[in-house]
Specification:
Blueprint lengths: L2 H4 L2 H30 L1 H12 L3 H4 L1 H20 L5 H21 L3 H26 L8 H29 L2 H22 L12 H9 L1 H15 L2 H4 L2 H9 L3 H26 L3 H22 L3 H15 L3 H15 L4 H29 L5 H25 L1
Length: about 400
């Protein structure tokens, strides 16, 4: 029986309100973390010019950050398993602030890359425990929507944080952008202190045998691969979206900021829709999302050289690129609850690592494609990664039906 039904209406209303405020705090932190992750996309040119490096080398600021998330997420999540969830969230934002301050003060590309790597540690643990906290704050039937709401902070970062950060970098300097992001980290700490409930469920310490089970269970391994390929495919093109729009589509630098805002709005819509689709059957929803996503990436290859059509193609990419995020995270949470229930947070962390391995692989592949074939070929190469995700998702859905 649903325990919520047995509770007085006033208690259910109070818990719902508390949960909504808690999700808002998670979204605020996600906004800051999302901004610092993706803002170099709009600053690659100015960073490259300032530090006298190539645009491809500057792209390592995206892939290097992603590698930091991939390395730090599962290890740090396991090491902090006994720590209060609320205290951990606030500690992560301290790391976030320090990393961005070091980035703003970086005298060289090497120091900047190290700063990005350190900042990435907060990202990985935040999103791994954030997903498990979010599902505690809502009724069982709204878990996908709760994860989507938390990730809304990430998508709003793409809507406003990235273009605003790009604008600040253009008007002042790219260092000013990192100072502003660090300041937002202070706001995130305050919101977590005030809005996150204290009585969050503490996951039991994960045993080594449970973590080993996560990495040897074929269903979970397949889930991690689906995340890496399905999410990472878009980043073959997205990492280099600014030069793609400027050099291939012929859009002016000022207009690119407006397009980035429109792209982010499309991402926000896609994320919300994806969460609703994922509530009932995440793996089935993912299959069709990937099919459309691959088709849009292929279409963008042909639309990119034309101004109006290219911009429309980019907006469509934004709509479907991040729609899969809630489903990918919920899929892993549900699988781990079934196969390794005492290691759900570690499974969530490994999936966050999988997201960022996808980003790293996608951005590196994008750099190789640019150097060997040209910018215009990045979308369809990214589609090949998504097509592999479609195949694996189909297999996973078949295994789901059998079990």
């Amino acid at each position: 029986m649903n325990q919520n039904i047995d509770k007085p209406a006033s208690q259910r209303k109070a818990e719902s309100k508390s949960g909504s405020w808690g999700l808002l705090a998670l979204a605020i932190s996600a906004f800051g973390i999302g901004t610092t992750e993706f803002v170099p996309v709009g600053l690659l040119g100015s960073i490259a010019n300032s530090l006298n490096i190539s645009i491809t080398l500057a792209g390592l600021l995206i892939s290097g950050y992603a590698i930091g998330v991939a390395v730090g997420a599962p290890i740090l999540t396991a090491l902090t398993n006994r720590m209060s969830r609320k205290s951990l969230l606030m500690s992560l934002m301290v790391v976030f602030i320090i990393g961005n301050v070091v980035a703003a003060l970086s005298p060289s590309f090497e120091v900047l890359l190290i700063a990005r790597f350190i900042t990435a540690f907060s990202h990985g643990v935040f999103f791994s425990i954030g997903a498990t906290i979010a599902v505690q704050l809502v009724p069982p039937g709204k878990k996908g929507s709760a994860i989507a709401l938390m990730f809304t902070g990430l998508t709003i970062a793409i809507v406003t944080g990235v273009p605003l950060g790009t604008f600040i970098g253009q008007v002042f300097d790219w260092r000013a952008t990192f100072w502003c992001v660090a300041l937002f980290g202070v706001i995130a700490i305050i919101s977590s202190a005030v809005l996150i409930p204290k009585n969050l469920k503490q996951s039991p310490p994960a045993k080594f045998s449970d973590m080993f089970r996560l990495l040897t269970n074929r269903r979970l391994i397949m889930g991690f691969l689906i995340t890496t390929l399905g999410y990472g495919g878009t980043f073959v093109a997205f990492t280099y979206l600014t030069p793609l729009l400027h050099d291939v589509t012929g859009v002016s630098q000022g207009m690119i900021n407006i397009i980035l805002i429109a792209y982010g709005v499309a991402v926000a819509f896609g994320n919300s829709i994806g969460g609703k689709f994922a509530n009932k059957n995440p793996i089935r929803a993912l299959f069709w999302m990937f099919v459309v996503q691959a088709a849009v990436l292929i279409l963008l290859t042909f639309l990119a050289p034309f101004k109006v059509a290219g911009v429309i193609g980019v907006i469509l990419m934004g709509l479907f690129a991040f729609m899969n995020v809630p489903g990918l995270q919920l899929n892993i949470v549900q699988l781990s609850e079934r196969y390794a229930p005492s290691a759900v947070e570690v499974a969530s962390a490994i999936n966050i690592a999988a997201f960022n391995i996808g980003i790293a692989v996608g951005s590196v592949i994008g750099g190789i494609v640019i150097d060997s074939m040209g910018l215009v070929h990045t979308p369809w190469i990214g589609a090949l990664m998504v097509i592999l995700a479609i195949v694996l998702t189909g297999i996973s859905a078949k295994l789901e039906r059998k079990s």
